[in-house]
Amino acid sequence: MEKAERTPLGTVCANLPCTSSSPTAHRKQIDTEDPFVAYPLALKIMFNYQFAAPERHLWMDMGTELIPVRKRPPELIGYMAKYFLAFITHLRNIIACGCHAAVYEARARTVEKAERTPLGTVCANLPCTSSSPTAHRKQIDTEDPFIAYPLALKIMFNYQFAAPERHLWMDMGTELIPVRKRPPELIGYMAKYFLAFMSFLPHSHPNIVHMYKAFTDRMPILEDAHRLYPEALPTNDFFELVVDEPKTLFIVMKRYRMTLREYVLTCKRNFWIGRVMFGQLLEAIVYLYDRRISHRDIKSDNILLDFDTEEDVPHLVLSDFGCALATGTWKVRYHSDTVDLGGNLALRAPEIRCARPDPDQLVDFRMADLWAAATIGYEIFTR
């Protein structure tokens, strides 16, 4: 130990099980036939295949290896602590994955710990696990994942790695239409942009997805990411350009039992349950209509249901506002094919689908959601 303290790695060797400080006893211990006595430690050397990545990426990409560590390394302080303390142990299985985002099971840190983390403002006011350590462990070990992980974390895919962070809020801003509390980033210049080109819902609605928080951070490389969405990962394997700290948008939402598509394929229902479900969908559309918002991507995969047993009447909510029109007007000038007319081609209303680009062409989305809702009703009552 005396020699270790004089080496550059003295701080690493401190508090480790060491051999005797006596030279004679030290040699005897090394010469022993039992290697577990002579070499009581194991050194794990991780393989870093991304040689050009900054050092902090090592802590982020391999951070789950450190979950059992007794003493937190000094590198995990400040910005790194922000990443680790908030979310490193609170994501589990993937729920869904598409072209624009992936959704993971998530849970909030206990209230006492969340308030001490740099991301305490993100975790605040979220449905969290119990503050009692014993109850907390029991809740996590429960067989029902919807109790242990009551939240869903939506990770948006940012394919423009070199774009400034403010572009994330602008390009993906419609996703935040239902957010309960406007993020602090949408204040000042950003608020001026959003209020001019997009409107938020003034208050929550029981048939609109409960969206708690939104924030930006670096794009994490999670389990199965290379298999499920490799094109969305900022790695040298797919891109010749190395961009420092590419970021993306994260959205924290309430977790629901399943999508409407999964429900109609797996669960039995009668005509009365179908009517209640369809009525809830119309309630959501009317609420958006009163505020001049058109969803433009209504389909069974974007409708979420929550229930305890299959005999219950599901609680239905409308989600995924990434293609929504919330400019305060129903009409969009369709001057070229580059104009976005919504995400669901199959369920577009006839006046939208039959439109052709022209300098004087105006497409009216006033009744577009109602047409899509009728097709959803057919799916509810016939399958």
UniProtKB/TrEMBL annotation:
GO CC annotations on file: cytosol; mitochondrial inner membrane; mitochondrial outer membrane
Obligatory cofactor(s): Mg(2+)
Cross-referenced SUPFAM superfamilies: Protein kinase-like (PK-like)
Gene3D superfamilies: Transferase(Phosphotransferase) domain 1 (1.10.510.10)
Reactions catalysed: L-threonyl-[protein] + ATP = O-phospho-L-threonyl-[protein] + ADP + H(+); L-seryl-[protein] + ATP = O-phospho-L-seryl-[protein] + ADP + H(+)
Keyword annotations: ATP-binding, Kinase, Magnesium, Membrane, Metal-binding, Mitochondrion, Mitochondrion inner membrane, Mitochondrion outer membrane, Nucleotide-binding, Serine/threonine-protein kinase, Transferase, Transit peptide
Major localisation: cytoplasm
Molecular functions (GO terms): ATP binding; metal ion binding; protein serine/threonine kinase activity
InterPro entries cross-referenced by the UniProt entry: Kinase-like_dom_sf, MitoQC_Scaffold_Kinases, Prot_kinase_dom, Ser/Thr_kinase_AS
Coiled-coil residue spans: none
Enzyme nomenclature, EC number: 2.7.11.1
Annotated SMART domains: S_TKc
Record protein name field: non-specific serine/threonine protein kinase
Species the sequence originates in: Gongylonema pulchrum
